[in-house]
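User: Predict the structure for this protein chain, please.
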Amino acid sequence: MKITPKQKKSFQENLTAKNIKWGEFGVVTISENDDHQEYQRLVHNPTELFFGFYHNEIFQSLYPDIGGWYVEYSPGSNNTPIASHPTVKNWEAVMELFDTWSELLKLEIEAYDFLDKLKEFSRSQSEINNLPTDAEQQFEPSEEIFIKEQLDHFSEKVSKLNLLPEQLSEINLKLDYLNSRIDKKYPRVDWLNIFVGTIISTLSGVGMENLKDPSVIEHLKILFHTITAGRFLK
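Assistant: Here is the predicted structure, written as structure tokens:
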């Protein structure tokens, strides 16, 4: 089953309304499924997240009240790899699931954009970000307290995510390391370098996709914005 022009138009309109670029998508054909049907997936190339579906017309004719549409997408609910909906009643219900997926995709794109900005920031801080003149000075005691509090809040948010115990332990070790360096009288820019490197390595780690939760990313954005005196993520 191939995606029809009308279906593609519905997808494109939904994505465009969320400011997601249609040009970043491709279509791949899946040769076989449980019903031995060929079908297609719409794939967002930068993140590799997909939305796939097909219509079993025979099943639909036998069980019209249940429906014959099948939908799968990644990431699934609660950040499982794939969400599967084997009996979707009609096309309108398929589009409702697509809207759910595109919202998840938008959050994932924002997380990727944030990570890219961090990497850019770490490569050329002074030229790109115009750091404040006090970047070479040490944090004030009140600033140290603020940062420690924010790191603790970050740890609390992470603890509520669906992470493996060893993943959570690894993150807490990194946060403990950051906490231990705040009051070592580093210049702001040096501690910021440590901070950026730690966050990049954590977000880029294998199996750390759950860390891209919107609440976590938003917390990091606010913290970076504050530490850089408004130079980052204006």
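The CA atoms of residues 43 and 50 lie 4 Å apart.
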